[in-house]
Design a protein that fits this description.
Elements lengths: L2 H33 L2 E2 L8 E2 L3 H7 L2 H33 L5 H16 L2 H12 L6 H8 L11 H28 L4 H9 L4 H29 L3 H6 L11 H11 L3 H26 L10
Antiparallel strand pairs: 1-2
Amino acid sequence: MTTKEIRSTAYRYIMPTVAIVIIAGLVPILYSVYISLFDYELIQTQHTFIGLSNYLNLIADDRFLHATVFTVVFALVATICEVALGFVLAYLLYSKNIAPTFSSLIRVVMLIPYMVAPVVISFTFKTLIYDVNFGYLNAVLREIGLPILNVFSGKWNSSIAVLIMEIFLRTPFTILILYAGLTTISAELIEASMIDGASTWTKIRRIILPILKPVVFVAFIFRFMDALKMFDEMYVLTRGGPGYTTENLSLFVASQGFEFSHMGLASAASVLFFIIVAVVCALFFRLFQPKETKGGEA
């Protein structure tokens, strides 16, 4: 077969997948953009075209602005914590400080939170750990003589409670990616640094992290995008409360669309949400992309 025939055959094979991606992804986005231009209420049969009014109302809405800032800040803090903790645990497994007999078992145990449904983990934290009367957290606080803590009574308490649960739930993903990246580092390179007397911190800072930078970026960007659209955990644990202090953009869109039936406003919020995610991720890609040197020198 000629090169042209091979390409033609390849295109025919991938076209069904491309069509499915377009239908499942692009069409709903375009329909959301269309709805966002109307005063679209679920309980009404007539929908009035209002142009960009929904977008202007959102920009002037303090609740939407708070949800936007909270979403980005929470996702950034959670992702940094998950990547940092994931690297530490992955390095402990890689450096063979843990006995090989237990290494495989530890890897399996670490992946359990990632394999369990987020809703299950969220209910577990809400009822068995954070509950004021029956949770293990307050049981421990009572035993050591400290006052009980209602994690759902304040903005910071609720935010930290969700953050801890998110770190527990998602860190195994970063461990898996970073451990896979660590195993690709040449053993001879590490041994040479040890022979030269490099300390553990020097070895990590000068050898491992520079080599692992692309892998760290992949883990970071995947987790960051996932944290931006977090819904299940936040809905089960706080539902945006107390008040709207822990409401992210996913909860805001769901609330406007299905609680208040403002589908036009919810669609406009979804479009803005999509733009925010695209812009933030593009900034990270630009920030972490390798810098080109003059003359093609490394």
